[in-house]
Amino acid sequence: MAERLDWNDEVPWSERFEDIYYSRSDGLAESRYVFLQGNRLSEKWQKKNIFRIGEAGFGTGLNFLATWQLWRETRTQDSWLYFESIEGFPLDRDQLKLIHQEWKELKTLSKMLLAAKNSSSNLLPDWQNWPEERITLRLHHAEVLPALRAMQSNQVDAWYLDGFNPKKNPEMWSRDVLREVARITCPEGTCATYTAASHVRKSLEDSGFVMKKIKGFAQKREMLHGCKL
Description:
Elements: E1 5-8, E2 11-14, E3 19-20, H1 27-37, H2 41-44, E4 50-56, H3 62-74, E5 80-86, H4 93-100, H5 107-115, E6 127-130, E7 135-140, H6 144-149, E8 156-161, H7 175-184, E9 185-193, H8 198-206, E10 209-215, E11 222-228
């Protein structure tokens, strides 16, 4: 069953977590700044034949679409992108289609994402492959901690930590969750998140990341970027 969705100042709003899905200033620009630039993707995936991104909080799919667009523009010819995302409270295909209408430049990619049918529901399927794009999307429709525990160690090159506000959704940002994120991250793998919460930073540092505060997006003063030792 799909998550209930509302709108707040023309931005999608989660009734469950009482929080917006992305910045009112510019959701796509936020995604590019926080996650794509925060993880230095266009530079990093030049160096690997298979590049793996992990995401906690698929949400509207905006981060995936923005990543796909950048992948098209900057990947090497023989490389492959594996994008694995976790979403415990998924939006369905109709909700995603409505939200994606805001970003005209992502229209083609949105259609490709939403085209695959799920035989059991209107949710996106667990797996999608686009061989011509050299992309695989793996979606876990599950709670974050069990999903992370099922993933292999030292696999992920870059993390998008994109749960709702830690005060609204503390389970997503627990010490156990962030320890699992570190376990799954390969040496010199990175993470990025819009939050600068001190307990998030400390948990990631305790788990093996070297963390830095950098300028946040738009009016947000700070965000976090990290690299695993």
